[in-house]
């Protein structure tokens, strides 16, 4: 039933009123039909009901006691004909009166229905108005407040509990966003201060030589590369939260080999032993994001390792999932602190100065979530971390979409 009014109270009033009026109209119609179906030509003669001439005492033919308008000498057929005619007229008149009175009762019922409908609508909407006022009162500075509706476990209580849950998640999301923005601003501000200090030192040094300028330039280039990596991580993190727009068939093995190739200079500088067992692992997803995920895993394993340590990388298909697993040696991590490593800027041992501000595993978590992948991480007993990401396996050619790894790297924005 489509009603033109936009206010719920008016709509409910009209709905309740229409239902009451319709119910009254149906009741009156049924009453009228029942009365109308009663035979109008039946009369009672000497305690016997008769109609249409049936049941007449042929022996006497008497009417059994004075009927108005009936002549005593009239024959029995004329008597009953007159009685039937009179009964039909009375029945018709009664139906007409019943119809008129029913119309009056229906008009009265219309007014009563409007009043009762308004009261019922107001009663039904009262808890909703209270919840609406409370939700309007809650702002970005008072998200800790809740509706906290008390009462029976009905639909309104369920709605209030759902809104409370939504407010709780919104508060947590806003707090996380504020912390993330603060940490990101700090991460971007610190390199700018270092660059400014280096430039100022070079300018005010009157005895600066070409070698001094070269050293300062190399230092500025290193800081700029760290900023670029940070911005790439932030962009990947933001892109993963927007959801997947572009999907291609990829092979985790090809991406893992490329990630190891990119990290080879740093791993050789640290004297790390890198072992790779890359079996075909087809997935369907965003090429740039998945490549960023694999590179973040490798970069985290190399950057948070001890000199002369080890990095083990594996890609395979297992239990219906395409799996990429990276394990490394390094400092010991408490098992209860593993989950903290996947929060932005929360990982222990992260710092801005070493070029690892703690976004790598946060990016991995966000990209995996966007691809409906499952992450499992555990602290190694001898130090370091083992991280495994399992993607839902996709059928098809695993080489499709990754034949030109250089083009993929260009699209992902890696240098």
Report on the architecture of this protein.
By secondary structure, the chain is of the alpha+beta class. It has 2 domains: 130 residues, no CATH class; 167 residues, 2-Layer Sandwich (Heat Shock Protein 90), CATH 3.30.565.10. Helix content is 55%, strand content 13%. The chain is built from 8 helices and 9 strands. The strands form 3 sheets. The protein has a 5-stranded mixed sheet, covered by helices on one side. Strands 1-2 form a two-stranded antiparallel sheet. A hairpin with a 2-residue loop joins strand 6 and strand 7. The longest helix is centred in the N-terminal third of the chain and has 62 residues. The relative contact order is 0.08.
Summarize, please.
The chain contains eight helices and nine strands. It has helices at residues 8-37, 76-137, 155-204, 210-241, 252-270, 287-303, 360-370, 405-412; strands spanning 42-45, 48-51, 248-251, 273-278, 282-285, 310-318, 321-328, 374-379, 385-392.
